[in-house]
TrEMBL record:
It comes from Apolygus lucorum (Small green plant bug). The lineage of its organism: Eukaryota, Metazoa, Ecdysozoa, Arthropoda, Hexapoda. Keywords: Chromosome partition. Residues 64-134 form the MIP18 family-like domain. The keyword Cell division does not apply. GO terms for biological process: chromosome segregation; protein maturation. SUPFAM superfamilies: Fe-S cluster assembly (FSCA) domain-like. This is MIP18 family-like domain-containing protein. Signal peptide: none annotated. The keyword Disulfide bond does not apply. Belongs to the MIP18 family. It holds the Pfam family FeS_assembly_P.
Amino acid sequence: MVETLQERLGTDRMLSGLRSRFKQMVFTQAAETKPPYSSNSNVETCTISTEKILIENEQFKDIVFGIIRNIKDPEKPSTLEDLNVVYEDGIQVTRNFDNSVFKVLVEFTPTVPHCSLASLIGLCIVVKLQKSIPPQTRFKLRVILKKGSHNTVDEIVKQINDKERVAAAMEIGGLKELVIHYVANIACVVVV
């Protein structure tokens, strides 16, 4: 499938928007100053920090969905979003105890309970996020299948969340080419 110039321009605009939102999210915290201390300022600061963290988590969720929504389905000429394999409500973003690491949970639903390519879809999601999110952004990724959506949910989840298995899969020539083909439908590297 050849991407038209108009589709490419639309993709570039989307990525530009993602880049600017990502820059705002990463760099606005450093520019802010703390209010002077008073008896109520600690409560106020805590509330603002919590609200800010929730907003940043929501922005990061949008970025994650923007990255994975256009992955091609291995069997059909559609994207994972078009087939409702990935969906915004299936992405959760939280933080670790000191707010330094994003914890990203991506849930997806194969099109049929016996989908033989569910592992490949999960691998594509993992690889695309690893390649697209800048290395200075600390995040921990977990990809799961929706409960009851596949006959072998536990085995697939174990396989796609094992870093050594993912690395080994990406060393296999044919499989690596398949993954690159499905995730490379657009250039989706977020530059900060």
